[in-house]
Predict the 3D structure of the following.
Amino acid sequence: MEKNEVIDAIKELRQSAKKRNFSQTVDLLISLHNLDLKKQENKVEVFATLPKSRGKKIKVCALVGGALFSDAKENADLAIIQEDFPAIAGNKKEMKKLAREYDFFIAQVDVMPAIATSFGRFLGPKGKMPSPKAGAILSPKGSVKVVVDKLQKTVKLSVKTELGIKCPVGKESMSDDDIAENILAARMALVNALPQHEQNVKYTFIKFSMSKGIKIGGKKWVSLNLL
């Protein structure tokens, strides 16, 4: 896929989409085929680092021990120290709020067993447990700031139950060039993780959060219902 094809699709999307009084999220949708998801080896989870900003603040919660607590308080949106895990875990309403409100959770590696015990049943089903694939598990001497900064440009692409992905790659207010670079980076991260790479990709679409989708490359008549 060439950058000019992506930029052409973005321009078409801007022309066809109804104007809103806010900057909509730009979503990338990729439809897949020739992939048997009943086989564990065909399931994919990859975290892509985008070259440009996602266009919004990504909220990060740090679950840490004493070694990283000061760093986490300064650099994460919320820092929870290990001693407070049991009290929070006992509050179902608070746990649901945490899982809903924060985009990523990072962890101090030596408190991961306590995190799994206290937070696993709420974060696990939402796919938000701290992940080493995202670089979200730190040593006691690690830098919370470095991880939080990286996560501001990180998106998760997961293929486990459906032959397709949808992920945010920017905001409507961003330039066409920046959106295109993010789209290409996210798509390439997924393609590289697929067993047959490009042969597993059926269609690629972009859309605003409240618009119809535009297919990138080839015939434009393909329906989003095929995703």
